[in-house]
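ok trying this again, last paste got cut off
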Amino acid sequence: MSVEVMAAGVPAVRFSPVRWERAYRRAVRAAFARVPFYRDQWVRAGRALGEPVPTPSTELAGQLHRLCPFARPYDQGAEASPWIGPAGDLRAALAVAGAGGRAPVLEVRRAVLDRRALGPGRRYGVLLHPDADVVHERRRRELNEPALRLAETAGRAVVVGEREAVAEFLPALAGVETRVLERTGLAGAGDLIHDPHLGYYAARAACGEIHLLWRRFHARPAAGSPAVTALLRRRPTLVDVVPEGAAALGRCPGHGTPTLGVTP
């Protein structure tokens, strides 16, 4: 059975639990067949597993080369880090949070990113996190200038980042119509839910519920926390990754789509 709904902050959707589970099973089969990190789980178990062993996100540090398929290994000297994450995840999270549209998006990051848009009609710029290492403060201002100029030209902007970091930039945006979306981990239950390895995978909708970006991610229970799978990503392949923080999987009563009920 599928559910199609329309409500403030969330566009019309069609959610089918059956199709969602099928997408997860396809991701599992591909992971075991093509990716060293998951193939090694079979070796350690001494048998073929039906599902990957849920892996805490914190344990993925340093594992990037093992999370890419055998046929498409990661070449650190020839490509940017795949941990940057796809622009589509952030764009989808913004839509759920009710910040769709064409206002430029300024994201506070710890490194400059060569990305100019999140898709058609959605300009994008990076503001360097106050703790980011730079040669000197003049260089920091130079690197932040393009994003600030983007907002000034448009007269409006959506600013994404941790609350304290975003506050550092508000004086420079005094003449700009600014909407701030707080980025937190699952435990923080902010506007946009982010994990260092999964990237943006959930967002708080106008209904108040934290909605999983179910078109892009699957989640299943794993000892009090969700095990999250990136359905559209293959480099790195992320199946049953457990972010920090506890949450109960549920279904939004208004939208009928998967939610993450954060627990203390």
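PB: full thing came through this time. The radius of gyration is 19 Å.
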